[in-house]
Amino acid sequence: MAEAVTADVTSPINTLGSWEGDGVTVAQIAAALSDLRRHEQRAAVRTSVLTLVAVVRDPEVVDGTIETVRELGTRHPSRTLVLVIADTDEDPGIDATVSVHALRSQGPTVCFEDVVLRVRGPARWHLDSLIEPFTLPDLPVAVWLPNRLPSLGDPLLDTADRVVVDTRAIGARPDSLAQVSRLLRKLPVTDLSWVRIAPWRSLLAGLFEGHASRPFLDHVTRIEVAGHFGPRHLMAGWLMATLELTRAHVHTEEAEHVSIRITAEHEGRVGRFSVERPAAERVIHSSVDIDDGPTVEQTWRLRDRWPSRSLADALTRIGDDPVYRRALRGALELL
Amino acid sequence: MSDANPLAEPVGDKVAPPAVLVVFGASGDLTSRKLMPAVERLALRRLLPAGFSVVGVARTELSDDDFRERMRTTVEKLGGGGDEAGPVWAAFTGGFRYVAGDYGDEATFDRLKSVLDELDRERGTSGNRLYYLATPPGTFPVIVDALAEHGLNRPTTDGAFVRIVIEKPYGHDEQSARDLDTRVHAAFAEEQVYRIDHYLGKETVQNVLALRFANTIFEPIWNRRYVDHVQITVAEELGVGHRGGFYEKAGALRDIVQNHVMQVLALTLMEPPATFDADGIRDEKVKALKAVDILSPDDVAEHVVRAQYTSGWVGGEEVPGYREEEGVDPHSQTETYMAMRLLVDNWRWAGVPFYVRTGKRLPKRVTEVAMEFQRPPHLPFKASQAMGLAPDALVLRIQPDEGITLRFGAKVPGQAFQVRSVSMDFFYGAAFLEETPEAYERLLLDALVGDQTLFIRTDEVEQAWRIVDPILTAWADETVPLARYEAGSWGPAEADQLLSRDGRRWRKP
To answer: Which of A96, A141, B415, B501 is the most exposed place for a label (fewest CB within 10 A)?
Structure first.
């Protein structure tokens, strides 16, 4: 059944058309998608850069996931497939919702589409067979698992050119970082926890630019990293591995937000370097305080729409990330 | 461990080192409209380190706080500031200082020197300086000389840098550009000099390089064997506005052709560089410009058109003629439009005409490079079957709606066999919805990290003037009449004749 849609004039995203069907086949869904595009002139021209597949098992994260991928359309025009997997083999079948959207940015209208499939029954063990018919030819496929890690034998991985995971969302499971490390040997992995702490990393790196503070980096005496399981370990692991320090230098503790303090001693002077997020604010403060030397502070504000922004950042850089590999190696040493 | 910062990202955006940006002309228009918004965006994107500082220098009397407040208001007026920027900017402007004084007064530079030393001590800027001359061209030599006299032109500590950014116009003809270079080089080595043309900072101008040298499908046809001719258009719908006084002395040739058009031309003509670094690319651009045929006075009379707009209608609004604009001589002979045919004497382009046009008060703002290909050697259809078939064309749109259009022939659906031209569009902004840096943002960061790729080297300036100077000389004799065109049209009839004589016509962008 096709459904008329009214335009939301306040949003840059305008849903041009949508279609819903229960107990449908892949061929019916593909035909509906094709029809939606064919009958809408604004959707005729498309410039896509990837197919994104989100796989969700937890009903609580379904809505958030769909919202995030729609917001993502404003950064990465792509075809998005959201697979919502039921935890039952009863009433096998697929329910589908297909939508075509237009985004009016500064230039021409950009179109993108999303397909949401609710999968029950045996098909949930063969998700690769549901993904292939919807992938755009010749473009990379990124598979996003919002709050879990795939097993290495999961056929889902055969369809993916890249897997996007989030070690923080998975929770404090001691083996999760080791599992990501094994996954990395199979294909490229992007960890949203790593992407999210990019501002902390670049502000920290910025503190050691220039002759006044750079030498302190060779004489670090103590590193303190606070934060949740996942980002905390990655940050600490990155610093330990990059600065070639031992575990004894690095201290970590559980906290709501990531913060880093580095103490170093050079030519008899102590330098204190920190990057911290105060509890209730969406800002990050960084500071340098060197005995008889410069004292400077910097503030950076975290942006809104964080989930879609970090996912967009994750999908922008599609090559291997050797720095993440190094951070993960360090994190595993710290555990 | 080396001096490199091991925590810096090996790939991705470059981050500026701690440095002082010294802006001469700090109370001027360029600083407000372009430089400060660029500094703010770089700060918001975390590309400036904590110690980064700005010193404004100008004649206007202001305190440090006045200067900070003025820059904050400026940035907000242009759409910056707001919730996201507020706390960032407040912390950031802690490193802003202001030095009031005349550029010809020694005391100005004494004060500047002591402020710079103070910032090095307090904010760890390590002797790194980037001077930015956002002042009228007449002040360039005065400031450059004064910097040298006060020892501010060379680094004072090991590993520090001192660089200078010079805005266009770089001279008003070949000789004056050379004279300016002599003064600049007496104080600064060429590696310290960053001559800016903001066109090169545009993402889509750089995309010309990506399109040409990251693909194999375009380069084989990018030559005289396939290309019939090339049209470069830089059109503006605006008039001279309040810049009448400046424009009277410049004209379209100096204002647009000598810099922007020559840069676009060089990127179109150049051979693939061996390396994608500053000298790799600039060497090839210079070679390309050197191959452009110099026009004799007779050539100028025959292959160059100059014109001035009269009143007309643009975008539904009635607009005055150039001579009625503020600050313009009612008998002005300054060109607001110019078109010319250039030939390039090298293996790749011999015999291919490059038609260039630029003008104000044209129907719309557009910059593009259009390559029209030769017709097939033989069409197996009847003439009546290919009536709607134009030659194939590849158009690089630089602004607006940046992208590429490919025009080719296709069969019209139906029983009859009819062929007509279709256009396939690629919109750059439809594939990448990233927040792309503004030109000044990109170039300022490049200057801070010491990347000269997108800045003009001295021999590029020389080559551009070498092409433009004979035209200026011929026009000075007034042997080439000044044509007129109605505002809102695509230029004078003489420009159409320039192409029609060769059996061609201008595209309608």
So the answer is: B415
> Distance (Å, rounded) from C-alpha B380 to C-alpha B189?
62
Residues A257, A284 contacting (CB under 8 angstroms): no
Q: How confident is the model at residue A19 (pLDDT cuts 50, 70, 90)?
A: very high
Side-chain half-sphere CA neighbours of B418 within 13 A: 11
Q: Which of B42, B46, B204 to substitute to test the interface with A, most A CBs within 10 Å?
A: B46
Q: Give tens-digit pLDDT for A163-191.
A: 999 999 888 887 999 999 999 999 999 99
Chain A residue with Cα closest to B159: A211
**Please, are residues B80 and A292 in contact by the beta-carbon 8 Å criterion?**
no
The amino acid present at B402, given as its one-letter code, is E
Q: How far apart are CA B4 and CA B9, in angstroms?
A: 11
Can you point out the beta strands (E) in chain A? 2-3, 13-21, 51-56, 79-85, 93-104, 109-120, 141-144, 162-165, 189-191, 220-227, 250-254, 259-266, 269-276, 283-290, 295-301
Q: Measured between CB atoms, does B2 come within 8 Å of chain A? A: no
- Residue B486 φ/ψ, nearest 5 degrees: -75, 135
Q: Which residues of B are catalytic?
A: 260
Environment class of residue B288 by beta-carbon count within 10 Å: exposed (0-12), middle (13-18) or buried (19+)? buried
Cis-peptide into B169, omega within 30 deg: yes
**A259-268, B46-55, B56-65, B75-84: which has the minimum mean pLDDT?**
B75-84
> Which of B1, B5, B11, B20 best probes binding to A when mutated, by most A CB atoms within 10 angstroms?
B5
User: Got the DSSP string for A227-275?
Assistant: ESTTHHHHHHHHHHHHTT--GGGEEEEE-SS-EEEEEEEETTEEEEEEE
**Above 90 in pLDDT, residue B82?**
no
| Band of pLDDT at residue A110, cut at 50, 70 and 90 | confident
Q: Is pLDDT larger for residue B193 or for residue A17? A: B193
Half-sphere exposure of A228 (CA within 13 A, CB side): 16
Q: Which of A75, A76, A82, A77 is nearest to A97 (CA)?
A: A82
Contacts of A107 in chain B (CB under 8 A): 400-402, 427-430
- Residues B116 and B508: their CA atoms lie apart, in Å, by 53
Q: What is the pTM of this model?
A: 0.84
Name residue A93's beta-bridge partners.
Answer: A120
- The neighbouring-strand residues paired with B393 are B372, B407
Please report, in angstroms and rounded to a whole number, the separation of the first and last CA atoms in chain A: 53
pLDDT at A3: 37
What's the CA gap between B176 and B172, in Å, rounded? 6
Query: String of b and e for B30-45 (b: at least 16 CB within 10 Å)?
Result: bbbebbbbbbbbbbbb
Rounded to whole angstroms, the Cα distance separating B260 from B399 reads: 13
